[in-house]
Amino acid sequence: QEEEPDPSDLSVDHEYFQEQIWPRLARRVPAFESLRVRGSWAGYYDYNTFDQNGVLGPHPRLENLFIAAGFSGHGLQHAPAAGRAVAELLIKGRYETLDLRRLGCHRLLEGEPLREHGV
């Protein structure tokens, strides 16, 4: 942790990437050896600090407010299912394709994080 760049500084630390990250990537995926970085950026992303899982569904106190947030960097992967789930809630008033109630706001209010055991 002491080697990690300061998160408040959004400039890209190319040296850290080349010396610390790139060798690990190349060991894990040998095809990365033949690739070279052509551009970079640094920024913040949507992150749920409570349990690192998305928050999806109706707001517990504000009528007509639906939430689809906090997917902690996995938003693009989860977007199709999250969009469909919210559409079902809006149109049908319930989940039909996938039951995603466990991602609801209730777990934050009740202090019960949704733990992923396979991660």
From TrEMBL:
Coiled coil: none annotated. It comes from the Eukaryota. One of its GO terms (molecular function) is oxidoreductase activity. Pfam families: DAO. One of its GO terms (biological process) is mitochondrial respiratory chain complex I assembly. GO terms for cellular component: mitochondrion. Keywords: Oxidoreductase. Residues 6-89 form the FAD dependent oxidoreductase domain. SUPFAM superfamilies: FAD/NAD(P)-binding domain (SSF51905). The keyword Oxidoreductase applies. The keyword Chaperone does not apply. Required for the assembly of the mitochondrial membrane respiratory chain NADH dehydrogenase (Complex I). Involved in mid-late stages of complex I assembly. This is FAD-dependent oxidoreductase domain-containing protein 1. The gene is Foxred1.
